[in-house]
Design a protein that fits this description.
Layout: H1 9-18, H2 27-32, E1 34-36, E2 42-44, H3 45-89, H4 94-108, E3 113-118, E4 128-130, H5 134-143, E5 149-152, H6 156-163, E6 172-179, E7 183-191, H7 204-216
Parallel strand pairs: 3-4
Antiparallel strand pairs: 1-2, 3-7, 5-6, 6-7
Pfam families: DUF484 (PF04340)
Organism: Oleispira antarctica
InterPro entries: DUF484, GAF-like_dom_sf
């Protein structure tokens, strides 16, 4: 005598997945099936499917809205970044570099504080600073831990190091390496809002600006 066959929920699910045409020509069965609802009322399988499709449609619409909003936001950021890059390309001296950065970062990007640290003997005016001390250069380099950029809340000591002065009102920061084969400096932007720059933020545009600076700064004449 053989054991009776015991069907599990998984068996039924697998069968229906393997036979997607099972309900074809079984309209009466479809109409008779009832699925419990959170409200306590039972709904037909078709009604439940329609409800699921509506929920998915709402979710997909929201995702599409988010994608379009991100695209519009990125388009605006691209336009602002493009204007800054063109201004940097046209810079003839360090005064032009400072003016281009200050105008763009403060006016277009609403940055509260910014600093450009450049590893050289070049004499620069705030908010640009030259870092000639090799130990300090290495200390700054170690902050990045192999990454091109980082952002978030840092210790007061680290904030002072990147901003090269005590910016008591700066609470969060984003910093990107300026490179030309190797690290040649740092571009930092800081906010008085401790939650403005978060560790999860994308630094794509800041990276791009830093890359452009890495190519342009070596061509600027020493003052």
């Amino acid at each position: 005598m053989s054991d009776s066959l015991q069907l599990t929920d998984a068996d039924v699910v697998q069968y229906l997945q393997d036979n997607p045409d099972f309900f074809i020509a079984k309209d009466e069965l479809l109409a008779s099936l009832r699925i419990p609802h959170d409200s306590g009322q039972a709904t037909s399988l078709i009604e439940r499917q329609l409800a699921v499709y509506r929920e998915r449609n709402v979710e997909l619409r929201q995702r599409l809205t988010d994608l379009l909003e991100n695209a519009r936001r990125n388009d605006k950021l691209f336009g602002k970044t493009k204007r800054l890059v063109l201004a940097l390309i046209n810079a003839q001296n360090w005064i032009d570099i400072e003016a281009a950065l200050d105008d763009s970062l403060r006016q277009d990007f609403n940055v509260d504080h910014w600093t450009l640290l450049y590893f050289s003997e070049q004499k620069l005016e705030h908010p640009m600073h030259s870092i000639s001390n090799k130990d300090k250069q290495r200390e700054i380099h170690r902050l990045f831990k192999g990454h091109r950029a980082f952002c978030g809340q840092l210790t007061d000591e680290t904030m002072d190091l990147l901003l090269d002065e005590k910016q008591s009102s700066a609470e969060s920061i984003a910093a990107a390496q300026i490179r030309n084969g190797q690290q040649t400096g740092v571009l930092s932007v800081a906010s008085d809002d401790p939650k403005f720059y978060r560790s999860s933020m994308d630094t794509l545009f800041l990276d791009y600006i830093a890359d452009v600076l890495g190519l342009i700064l070596p061509t600027i004449p020493q003052s």
